[in-house]
C-alpha cells in the first residue's frame, strides 16, 4: 500500500498496450494489491511515447512519471522499445538541467505475464515518490533558470 | 460534443470497492458530459441496450464506459455504439476494475482514482474522430510451424478444409515427440500406429507442401499477407533423388553420430534416416561426424548411392513463401536431468530419462523393445521411477506442473511389468495428477493390477552399490526414510519451452512468458489466438499438454484459420498513422524509423512528402513521436489525445496545490 494513504501523490504511468498494460491487467486479475497513486495512460507502444508527454506531465504538476514497455527484443512492433529506451535515457539526462529531480521519472520493462513484477514496480516507484514528496511547482522564475542553464551549455 | 458515461458495477467486482454512483455523479460535472449513469453489467444484453437507448435519447456523440480492461471488452462496446449509429471509434474505456477495484481495498481512494480515469477517457474522447476501416484481400494459404502431432493435426484440418498449407519442421522428419513414444496413455495403444497414418497423410495430401530440416528465417507482413523466408538447411543429399533405400546408412563407416531420435542411447551413422517411419523418408548427413565433410576422405555413400543423390557441396537454401495466417506448433523440450546432481543423471549409466526409457520399451528402439541396462545390457529387475524431475521445483526454475509426467510414469510402470513380468516397479511421487478422462482409473490400474509400489516423497540421493543403485528418499505418508534397491532408475523429466522459442517469438511478434512458453491472447476465452492477428498457437509451445489436448488445439487453430479465410476481404485497423501533407517537410525521419517499411516518400507538387501505406502500417506510432513537425499522427492516439489525458490528470493537481 502507499506510504501514506492520506496524502496520495499524482503519478502518471505510460504503458504500452501489449506488454505492460497487459501486465498491469494481470496484476489486477491476480489481485496483487498496489498503491492507488498511479493513473495509467495507455499507448500502443513505448515507442509512441514522446518525451514531451513526460515533460508536460512533470511541468503540469505530476509528482512522478513511470514508463513501462515490453522487454527489449520482445516488442510487439519489433523495435519500438529500443527507440523508447534511447529517447527516455536522453530525457533522463536532461531533467536535472531543467530543474526537475530525475528520480521523479523512471522507466521499466514488464511483460504481460509479469503481474507480480508490476506490483513490485508500482509499489517501489510510489514509495520512492512518497519519499520525495510533492513536486515543487515550476514557476516562471524556475523556467527562466532552466533556460539560462540550457543557453550556457 | 455530447458524451455519455456508463459506470459498470461488474456485480461486486467494481462496486465492492468503488462507489460507482459517486463516479457517475462526478462524471456528470465533467466538460462535455451530457449523460452519466451506473449499470449493473455494462457488457450484458440489458447493459448494452441501455447504452444504445441513452445514445439515441440524449443524442450522444461519444461514449465512455468505465468497467474492465479494454483488452477484454473494447471490441464489444465498439460494436454496441456502432449499433446505435455512432462511429465505433467514438468510444473510450476507463479501466476501473483491473487497475482500480481489484488492486486496492480503500473505497475512498479507489473512487477518486476511478473518477480520474473517467475524466481522462472523456478528455481523450473529445479529440476522437470517427475512423473507417479499409478492406484488403487475403492470401488464403497457411503456414504451420512445427511438425509434431499438434502441427500435423492443424495442417491436415486446414488442408482438408481446402486451404493450401506449408508445413515447416526443423528436424529431418515430422512426428515430433509423439513419434518417439512406444505406447500412449491411458489406452496403451501404439503411438506410431495412430500417428503414422497421419504422417503419411501429410506427405500425400495434395494441398500440403512439406519442408523438413528447415527453419523460419524471417517474417514480414501482417494478417492476410505474411511473407516468410524459410531456411532449408543443407542435408547434403538431394531429396528429389533420394529414395530412402537406406543403402548408404548400411555402408557408412562413421558410426559415432548422435542418434537424436533414440535420445542418444547408442549412436547412429553419419548419414542416416532418423527412424523407419520417417516422413519424408530421406537420408541426411550429420556434417559434424561425416568423414568426407570433416577431412575430405571417404565418400562411400556417394559411391554406393544407386540414384546418385549425395551432394557434399550442398548449402542452406532460402525459400520464400507468402501466406495469410501462421499456426505455431513448435512444441517443447525435455528438462535436462543432469541439473539434479543428487540423482546422478549423466554420471550413472543406468539413471536415464523417461524418454530414453520410452525408446528402450519401443520395438523400433535401439534394443528392439527389450529393456536392457545401458551399463551392462542386463535386464533390470527393480525399476525405480522418480517424478517431478524439473517440475514443481522452484530451485531449478520450473515451478509449474508439466502435467503429463504422472501419466506417462504410470504407463511406463505398466509396460515394464508387461515386458518383464518378474520385475518390480517403484514410483516416488509428490502428488498424482491424473485429471483427464480415464486417467485416474489408469494410475490405479498401475498400482492395483500391476503392483507398482507408489511412495509419496522426494528422493534425496541415488548412489551406486555394487552393480545396483540405492535410491534414498522420504516416505511422507509413513513418516520415515526409505531406501530402495534399483537396477535402473527412470527420471520422469518435465517439459520446458522449446529451445529458440523466444527468438521465434520475436520474429512472429508474439509474447512469451518467463519460461519461454508462448502467450495466448486470453487465458480462457482466446486460448489459441495470440496478440498478433493471424498468428495462432497449437500444442505445447503454449504450455505443457498431453496428446489429446494438443490435437484439440491443432484443430482449434485450424478452425480459427478457416474462419479467418472465410472472408475474401479483411478489414484493416484504421488506427494507423496519417500525414498532414501541409506540415510535412519531407525530412524522411519517419521513413527511417518505421519498423515495417510502411512509410514511403512521394512527390507532392515537386516536394518530397511522407505517405503511409495503409495496409502495412501496424499502428505503433513510433513515427509520430519521431516527426519533428508533428506532421504524422497516429489516429486514435494523436499527440492531442494523449496530452488531453495528461492535462486533465496533472493540471487538476496543479490547481489544487495553488489553492
Describe this structure in words.
Chain A: Pfam families: FlpD (PF02662). Chain A: It comes from Pseudodesulfovibrio sediminis. Chain A: This is F420-non-reducing hydrogenase iron-sulfur subunit D domain-containing protein. Chain A has 153 residues and is α/β, with parallel strands linked by helices. Chain A has five helices and four strands; from the N terminus they run E-H-E-H-E-H-E-H-H. In chain A, helix 1 (20-29) crosses helix 4 (115-132). Residues 1-5 of chain A have low confidence and may be disordered. Chain B has a five-stranded parallel β-sheet. Chain B is globular and about 85 Å long. In chain B, helix 2 packs across helix 3. Chain B is built from 18 helices and 34 strands. Classes of the chains: A alpha/beta (153), B alpha/beta (659). The interface between A and B is large, with 59 and 59 residues.
The helix fraction of chain A, in percent, is: 40-55%
At the fourth CATH level, what is the homologous superfamily of the largest domain in chain B? FAD/NAD(P)-binding domain
CATH class of the largest domain in chain B: Alpha Beta
Number of domains of chain B: 5
Described by strand count, sense and barrel closure, the largest sheet of chain A is: 4 strands, parallel
- Largest sheet descriptor of chain B: 5 strands, parallel
- The proportion of residues in beta strands of chain B is 15-25%
Strand content of chain A: 15-25%
Gyration radius of chain B (Cα, Å) is 31 Å
Structural class of chain B: alpha/beta
Cα radius of gyration of chain A in angstroms: 16 Å
Examine the coordinates and then state which fold CATH places here, giving the name of the CATH topology of the largest domain in chain B: FAD/NAD(P)-binding domain
Average pLDDT, all residues of chain A: 90
Give me the oligomer status.
heterodimer
Distance between the first and last residues' Cα of chain B:
30 Å
Inertia-based shape of chain A:
globular
Structural class of the helix and strand makeup of chain A? alpha/beta
Instruction: Give the largest interface pair and sizes.
Output: A-B, 59 and 59 residues
Strand order of the largest sheet of chain A: 2-1-3-4
